[in-house]
Design goal:
Length: 236
């Protein structure tokens, strides 16, 4: 099921993401991190547990960019940027789960239709969801554009659960379900994120089954020494 905060009335719009609004005004909607976290939660329930991380990354983009008729148009540049262009097996994987109709012949943009009624009536509007889709491509402060899909999805799930606190946490079973991994695989991926410097540290509380992590400490910037200027007497 789609989280309640994503449900609401919507008006018909085209299958392409609308342009971003002009700056100004007060944004009263949840931020992109919240929308991505809720959509990952939805996909964790809607897709089979064995769905691959790459297919989940594609499903997330489709769900956030779909219109109320379930139509989605993904530009070829987006798929190239995700390093997933040409992977037809991922579309068949999502189609086999009954979640979407596989796209037709290859073209400049990938056009398809979602079959799950749970994503056809979402709130907030598509402009806000498209911003969340863009954020999911580079989820600061844990962006890993060149990493394998399993590592990118893990970093995205952590970024979606990152708070303003110094130490961040979520349930290990929840994190594993969002990423389609076993708890053991999730632990190995967290170790790799520490190795790459994406995470500072992480640990698992076995009593509460919570995973805690910290971001790397920012490096102190060294100020270049300022050379004293030699005194020059004024010209006569």
């Amino acid at each position: 099921m789609v989280p309640d905060t994503l449900l609401g009335s919507a008006r018909p719009q085209s299958s392409a993401c609308p342009p971003s609004p002009a700056h100004g005004g007060v944004r009263q909607e949840p931020d992109e991190r919240v929308r991505v976290r809720e959509m990952l939660t939805y996909l964790g329930a809607a897709l089979p547990r064995f769905t691959s991380p790459a297919a989940r990354l594609l499903g997330l983009q489709c769900a956030l960019r779909a219109d109320i008729r379930g139509h989605v148009r993904l530009p070829a540049g987006l798929l190239r940027g995700m390093r997933l262009r040409g992977h037809r097996d991922l579309w068949h994987e999502l189609a086999h789960a009954g979640w979407l109709e596989p796209p037709g012949a290859r073209s400049a943009s990938m056009q398809l239709r979602l079959l799950d009624a749970g994503v056809l009536d979402q709130a907030p509007g598509r402009r806000a969801r498209c911003r969340a889709a863009h954020w999911a491509l580079h989820p600061a402060p844990l962006a890993l554009p060149a990493a394998p899909p399993a590592l990118r999805l893990t970093a995205l799930a952590l970024a979606a659960h990152t708070s303003v606190d110094t130490e961040h946490s979520t349930d290990l079973d929840i994190l594993a379900r969002l990423c389609g991994h076993s708890p053991q695989q999730t632990g190995e991926l967290l170790d790799r994120l520490v190795t790459t410097g994406t995470l500072g540290t992480w640990h698992h509380n076995r009593e509460t089954d919570e995973v805690f992590w910290q971001l790397p400490q920012p490096r102190a910037r060294t100020r270049s020494a300022v050379r004293p200027r030699r005194y020059q007497p004024p010209l006569p």
